[in-house]
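In the previous chapter we treated chains in isolation. Here, by contrast, the input contains two separate entities that must be folded as one system, with a combined length of 242 residues.
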Amino acid sequence: MQMSSIVKTTADVLFPFILIYGFYIIIHGHLTPGGGFQGGAILASGVLLLLLAYKYAESTNVVRQVVMKSLESTGLLLFIIAALSAMMLGAGFFFNWLSPGGILFGDIVAYGSGTANLNTGGLIPIMNIAVGIEVVGAISVILLALLSGIKEKI
Amino acid sequence: MRRNLSIIITILMVGMLGVIVTGLTFGDPGEHPMDRYFIENSQIESGANNVVAAVLFDYRGFDTLGEAAVLFTAALGVSLVLRKRRDD
C-alpha cells in the first residue's frame, strides 16, 4: 500500500532529527543516560521510519543491506580491537588505558558532581561508538529482512 | 500407572518450587560492599561521569562483549532464515 504524501513528508522532515538525536545519545554515552545500545536503537528507528513511509524498493536505495551488514561487522570488530588494544601495551583485556591523560578522550574528570566534560572517559566513548555502529547495523539488517516480505501493490 | 506417576512427580515438583519460593526473602536486599565502591571510585578509575557506562564498558566489559556478540548472531540468524531463495 502506498503511503500518503503527508506520511512521506513527515518522515523526510523527521529523519535527520532522529539521526542527530541518536548520534547525541551515542556520543554522550559516558556522561548522560543512554549509550551505544540505546542510541543505536534510536538510529535504527529512523531507518524503520523510512522503510515504513516509502516502498521497500524505494527505501533500499537509501538503506542498503550490504552497507548495514558491513556496519554490523565493523562495529563488533572495532569493539574487539578497542578491547584488545590494551593488551598490546601489556595491560589486561579491556583495560582503560586511554583514561588518565591519553591522546583521545583523556581529560581527568573532576571528582564529585559537576559540569560534564566530553573529552573524558578513555576507551568508554570509543566502545560506545563501536556498539552504536553495531546495533544500528544489526537492527537494520533484521528490519530489512523482515520487511522484505511485505506484499506491496504498486 | 504412568498417569499416576506423572501426577505424583508434578505434585512433588510443585511442592519443591513452593518450598524454595516461600523460603526466599523478597525486598530489602542487603547492601553489598561493591555498591558503595562503584559509586565512590568509578569516576577516578574509569574517567567517566556516568557510573552505568563505567560498569558496562569498564568493570563488566565482558558482559557487553557477549551482548554485542548475541546481537550479531541474532541478525545473522534472521538474515539467514529470511534470505532470498534462488528458485523464486
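Chain B is about 75% helix and 0% strand. The two ends of chain B are 53 Å apart (CA to CA). Compare these points with the single-chain example from earlier in the chapter.
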